[in-house]
Amino acid sequence: xxxxxxxxxxxxxxxxxxxxxxxxxxxxxxxxxFESFHMYGIIGTAVVLGALSMWVMKKTxxxxxxxxxxxxxxxxxxxxxxxxAGSVFGLGWALVGCCPGPMYVLLxxxxxxxxxxxxxxxxxxxxxxxxxKYLPH
Amino acid sequence: xxxxxxxxxxxxxxxQPWHWSxxxxxxxxxxxxxxxxxxxxxxxxxxKAFCSAAGGGRVSDFFKMNLKDEFWRIAFAIGGVIGGYIAxxxxxxxxxxxxxxxxxEYLSGIGIAYPESDAQGIGFVPxxxxxxxxxxxxxxxxxxxxxxxxxxxxxxxxxxxxxISGLAHFQLPSLITVIGxxxxxxxxxxxxFPFLMxx
Lengths: 137, 199
Hints:
The complex is a heterodimer.
Chain A: H1 2-19, H2 25-32, H3 38-59, H4 79-96, H5 100-108, H6 114-131
Helix pairs in contact in A: 1-5, 2-4, 5-6
Chain B: H1 2-15, H2 20-36, H3 45-53, H4 71-89, H5 101-109, H6 135-154, H7 159-168, H8 172-198
């Protein structure tokens, strides 16, 4: 039953991503060509307001619905790993013009080709699981 | 009477493309809601869950996980699909995505007409490049997806996890990952993609 509430937030997320045009391949291409402020405005606003709300939640020691305190599991800092991983992700993001969230949203928007993109992403995840011990972390 | 006019003009208003500030605020609201519900805002882990469900745990311990703990995330992703359907079926924008003139001009120079390159004409996906009909279309869709999936897992997060949540929590590893996103994205957009289109 709890999962229904996540489904509802997901529906809202999907509508937002589509109406903001953040799911558009063309918007992503335009962003990487620095020819519009649109995507930078979206991400910038989301980060600033997100940081503000996270700060308030931590400051007031607000309890989540699961009874926990708001915290972020810090990741080990590894310049090599994060630059490499980010770059691989970025290559794919610019090619298919969508990151994981929008892949699902675009599928709902009627782009069945996203089934193939999602299959590719799952295959990429699977490959990582096989070769992770050979990669710098 | 007055109410119905207001309702239809409200519908018309939200059917317009949303301003970046409204969209950014709405994404921040999603992050806040997920956090309040005691979960993180991250989408790419769904791919890991698929690998695990397909029996990936037999070949790598990385995929050994309790799938029940990921149901909420799958529910969120399914919600995303439904939201995408609602937005394009009931809240469709009157015009295709209004990208900048300079991008349109550049794209036409490398053989991508806008918005005609999108079979749906709404400016979401260039189906002339990503499609089931040609080997090139299949390889680009599959290969691009592969890079996204591999990179997201290697970096332990995608745009929602690093660029939104991670940055909102002032995480340095997330900032470095986002810089990586741009290194890869700029390389693809300015060098590799034009080369692929010329093939």
